[in-house]
Amino acid sequence: MRFSAILFDLDGALVDSIEDLAASCNKVLAARNFPVHRVEDYNFFVGDGLDVLMERIVPPGTSAEVLVACCQEFGLHYQECWHENSTPYKGIKQMINDLREAEIPLGILSNKPDAFTQKVVEFFFPEHPFTYISGQRADVPKKPNAAGALLAARTMGIEAQEMLFIGDTSVDMQTGKNSGMTSLGVSWGFRPIKELRAHRADFIVNTPQEIVELCL
C-alpha cells in the first residue's frame, strides 16, 4: 500500500454534476435578465467555491449585495435539481469498493457548500464508505488553503505526507501541494490535463481503476 489514506474532491472527481450546477446558475442569471452561459463554460467557472462561482458568471460591476442574493438564489434552485442529471463517473463505485476492501480510509474535501456536499455523498454513496466528508464551511478556509486538508488528516488520524489528494482542477493540485499530500489529477473531470500538468500533479490517471492499481 503506497498511501495510508485518500482524500477526494467531489465534483469532477467522483460525481459529474456540471449540468445541474449550470442549470441552477443559469436560472439565477435568467431571473435577473443577465446573460446565461453554455454548460461547457461552467467547467471553468466552478471549483473555487460558491462566492467565486457567482462572481465569474454575473456581469462585470455587479454589486456585492446582488452577489450575496445570487448565492442565496442558487441554493434555492440547486436544492430542487442537484440530483437530476448528476451521476458518479463510470468506475467510481467499483474503485471505492476496491479501496475500502483494502482497508484504505477515504475522505472527501469539496469547495461545494457543506450542506450540498453531505446530500450528494449520502445520495450517491448511501453505504457511506467515507470516514471524513466536508464541503465549504465558514469555520475552515476553502481549498487551495491547506487548512481543510490538514483538518481532514487530523480527523482521520493520518499524517498528511502519507495521504493522496485526488481531484480534477488546479485548485486540487495546489491543495495537495500546500498540505504536503501527494497530488493526483483525473483526466475525466471538468478541467483539461494540461491544467493538471501545469500545476505539477504528481500523478495523472485516465480511469478510476488506475487509482486502485496505484494504491494497492
Automatic annotation (TrEMBL):
Q: Which Gene Ontology MF annotations are present?
A: phosphoglycolate phosphatase activity
Superkingdom of origin organism: Bacteria
Q: Give the pathway.
A: Organic acid metabolism; glycolate biosynthesis; glycolate from 2-phosphoglycolate: step 1/1
A single Gene Ontology CC term: cytosol
Q: What class of enzyme is it?
A: hydrolase
> Per its UniProt record, what InterPro entries does this chain match?
HAD-like_hydrolase_sf, HAD-like_sf, HAD-SF_hydro_IA, HAD_2, HAD_sf, PGP-like_dom2
Give GO terms for biological process. Answer: DNA repair
Q: Name one Pfam family in it.
A: HAD_2
Annotated EC: 3.1.3.18
Reaction(s) catalysed (UniProt annotation): 2-phosphoglycolate + H2O = glycolate + phosphate
Family label? Belongs to the HAD-like hydrolase superfamily. CbbY/CbbZ/Gph/YieH family.
| Protein's UniProt name | phosphoglycolate phosphatase
UniProt organism field: Desulfotalea psychrophila (strain LSv54 / DSM 12343)
